[in-house]
Write a structure and sequence with these properties.
This protein has 20 helices and 17 strands. The protein folds into 3 domains: 98 residues, 2-Layer Sandwich (Chitobiase, domain 2), CATH 3.30.379.10; 305 residues, TIM Barrel (Alpha-Beta Barrel), CATH 3.20.20.80; 163 residues, Alpha-Beta Complex (Alpha-d-glucuronidase, C-terminal Domain). The strands form 4 sheets. An 8-stranded parallel barrel has the order 6-7-8-9-10-11-12-13. A 5-stranded mixed β-sheet has the order 1-2-4-3-5. The N and C termini lie far apart (53 Å). Helices cover 38% and strands 11% of the residues. It binds beta-D-glucopyranuronic acid. Beta-D-glucopyranuronic acid binds next to loops. The site of beta-D-glucopyranuronic acid (BDP) has 10 residues, from loops.
Length: 675
């Protein structure tokens, strides 16, 4: 009898854990934890202990040996997995490499990969040494451009209370090779450097350390003035230099492996060295000197643009390129992937390749500020892959992604948004991995419910949906090189007409689309702002010529007549209409694909994605109608008769007001979701 009760309790508990387990909180780490693998290691340490435990609990195969050993073919984080007479051996020169090797092995197991079956050795080294998440988390736990709940960091409770989520966060990151985290927003509060907060930061760093995650902080350049009332923050001032040296010392005393500082200076109202007549290099170098004794680094952002006459797309280059060669070796200039601002599609930033004597790193945005927040499916690996075609990983040692993580049970809001966190980590490790392969990995590890053995009826379609999703967003929001048509402030819906009295012109969509009776697009050719000249000659020529400019960048580089003949033989106007409509039709197709997935995924996840796709489908129509009806006032041309007609009045769309925490979508419905 007693046994039966235990059995019943056991069953209840296990079914409860299955129920619990399918809320997305386990991310891509859902392997059963009931294995009893035999694991030995030639050294003990907290990190090797983690690797051992992961394998013991989840590895279903032969005994594993963890071998810490120098190996000419392996970088610090690299690893080798080889078959031996008594099982498998994972080798790495560093204990963190053993943990990465462990997660790699477990991933191959989850994917039932053939790599495991062969006797081949696996050798992996990361492409980038520093693979960093940037959190835009504020001290009050709001997240700038965050759509998945509050900040994970509970500053009020730290350092005494440590949420379980901190370790889960570190583990998830380590499992995909991420090895750094900038805890706070680039629009940084000086308070983060106060003695009180540094204790809290230390507590997080202690949790993350065994997982190989180093902590970095965004710093406010005026911190010495705000925290200690210094009269200036001039980087050449002796007191200021001393202040930063002391502050850095204080940090390293608490956190000996602290990574360094991330700085947004003289950008969008943030203080910086230019306030004191100094250059970005002088500002960055002062901090770099303070960090150097501890091997810390400065990541100095090149996201700068001022309300000047110069085309905004040219400004980062104009300001930073002349400083090439002036930065200390431990400064890395952090450049957004495109020259404007994380748009659904941008050409790459011409700063890459033009600063031969400066370390640069790319900044991607994982959070979908400009791609439908956590309401839209937009798998971003194809966008990053596009970037790597122009900017190979070999040219840099670091890469950053602006995180999309928050307190939501599934971490990222939209269940598919997790795939972007995953893809960022995997690409930072190996940019050669295709979007397809990464989508395949993520889907198989994450999305199918337990007990589903045959995914073949749906897997290819789901993968296709992911792979096509970013292009669909481009199509229904901003095709053919259009950019920044977003509504003021929240960057969610369309507002190509937006006028705000007294606003900076470069904060208004008309600055970017320049629609008029003749045509549409920003002339950045040699007859216009000449931004093309910032690119290497061959590309500059390609982009400069209307006839050769790739159509996906056409309206980025050219102001094009409405009746211009496109490659398809259609007019620009017709082509534009077709792109918008294609985007809408794609989302409707995604809805059909997803509905077919019902039997294969958890019921709540199914409903969640289904309802977000409804929002996305409505939003896509809203975008299409808003942009086409607005631009039609200039083109004066009919929307091709074979495509779906608008269902909105332009007047009504112009009245849509989007609030911060909820918004009324054009159907009149009040949506309130992760805004
Ligand atoms: C823009 C965001 C803004 C950020 C800024 C930045 O709208 O919230 O502060 O970038 O990267 O995309 O500094």
């Amino acid at each position: 009898m007693k046994h039966k009760i235990y059995l019943l309790i056991g069953l209840l508990l296990s079914s409860f854990s299955i129920l619990q387990a399918e809320d997305g909180s386990r991310l891509w780490l859902r392997q059963p934890q009931n294995a009893h693998a035999q694991v030995t290691a030639n050294k003990q340490s907290p990190t090797i202990g983690l690797a051992t435990r992961e394998l013991q609990q989840a590895w279903q195969g032969a005994p594993v040996t963890l071998e810490l050993k120098k190996d000419k073919q392996l970088d610090k984080d690299g690893f080798r997995i080889r078959h031996t007479s008594d099982g498998l051996t994972i080798t790495s020169p560093d204990e963190i490499g053993l943990l990465y090797g462990t997660y790699h092995l477990l991933r191959l197991q989850a994917l039932q990969s053939n790599d495991l079956k062969t006797d081949n050795e696996i050798i992996e080294n990361p492409a980038y040494q520093l693979r960093i998440l940037n959190h835009w988390d504020n001290m009050d736990r709001t997240i700038e451009r965050g759509y998945a709940g509050k900040s994970l960091w509970n500053w009020d409770e730290l350092p005494n209370t440590l949420s379980d989520r901190y370790e889960a966060y570190a583990r998830a990151n380590a499992s995909i090779g991420i090895n750094g985290t900038v805890l706070n927003n680039v629009n940084a509060s000086p308070q983060i450097l106060s003695a009180e907060y540094l204790q809290k930061v230390k507590a997080l760093a202690d949790v993350f350390r065994p997982y190989g995650i180093r902590v970095y902080l965004s710093v406010n350049f005026a911190s010495p003035m705000v925290l200690d009332s210094l009269p200036t923050a001039d980087p050449l001032d002796k007191e200021v230099i001393r202040w930063w040296k002391n502050k850095t010392k204080e940090i390293y005393k608490l956190i000996p492996d602290f990574g360094g500082f991330l700085v947004k200076a003289n950008s969008e109202g943030q203080p910086g060295p230019c306030d004191f007549g100094r250059t970005h290099a002088e500002g960055a170098n002062m901090l770099a000197d303070a960090l150097k004794p501890y091997k810390g680094i400065v990541m100095w952002r090149a996201f700068v643009y001022s309300p000047s006459d110069a085309d905004r797309a040219k400004q980062a280059y104009l300001e930073f390129q002349p400083l090439d060669g002036q930065f200390r070796p431990n400064v890395i200039v952090q450049v957004k992937n495109g020259p404007v601002d994380f748009q659904p599609r941008e050409p790459y930033s011409p700063l890459f390749g033009s600063m031969k004597h400066t370390s640069l790193m790319a900044e991607f945005q994982i959070t979908q500020e400009y791609l439908g927040h956590s309401n839209h499916i937009a798998y971003l690996a194809p966008m990053w892959e596009e970037f790597f075609q122009f900017v190979p990983a070999t040219s840099q040692k670091a890469i950053a992604g602006v995180s999309n993580i928050g307190t939501d049970a599934n971490w990222c809001g939209h269940p598919f948004a997790q795939a972007n966190w995953y893809a960022f980590g995997r690409l930072a490790w190996n940019p050669q991995l295709g979007s397809d392969e990464i989508a395949d990995e993520w889907l198989k590890q994450t999305i199918y419910k337990e007990g589903v053995t045959d995914i073949s009826p749906i897997h290819t379609d789901l993968k296709k949906m992911m792979l096509e999703s970013r292009e669909a967003v481009v199509d229904y929001m901003m095709p053919l090189g259009l950019h920044h048509l977003f509504a003021w402030g929240h960057h969610y819906g369309p507002e190509p007409w937006c006028k705000v009295p007294g606003a900076r012109p470069d904060w208004l969509p008309s600055y970017y689309h320049k629609a008029d009776a003749q045509g549409i697009g920003f002339d950045r050719s040699s007859t216009g702002s000449n931004a093309v000249a910032q690119y290497p000659d061959s590309l500059a020529r390609l982009y400069n010529n209307l006839a050769t400019c790739p159509e996906e960048y056409l309206l980025w580089f050219h102001h094009v007549p409405w009746r211009h003949t496109m490659k398809s033989g259609r007019t620009l106007w017709d082509e534009l209409c077709r792109h918008y409509d294609a985007g809408v039709q794609q989302v409707k197709k995604f809805q059909k694909t997803w509905d077919k997935a019902e039997a294969f995924v958890d019921a709540d996840c199914f409903k969640d994605v289904q309802s977000r796709l409804k929002i996305q489908a409505r939003d896509a129509v809203w975008w299409k109608d808003a942009c086409l009806l607005y631009f039609q006032q200039f083109s004066q041309m009919p929307i091709p008769y074979d495509i779906e007609r608008p269902i909105h009045e332009l007047d009504d769309l112009e009245k849509v007001q989007l609030g911060i925490s909820n918004y009324e979508c054009p159907s009149g419905e009040l949506l309130n979701r992760n805004r």
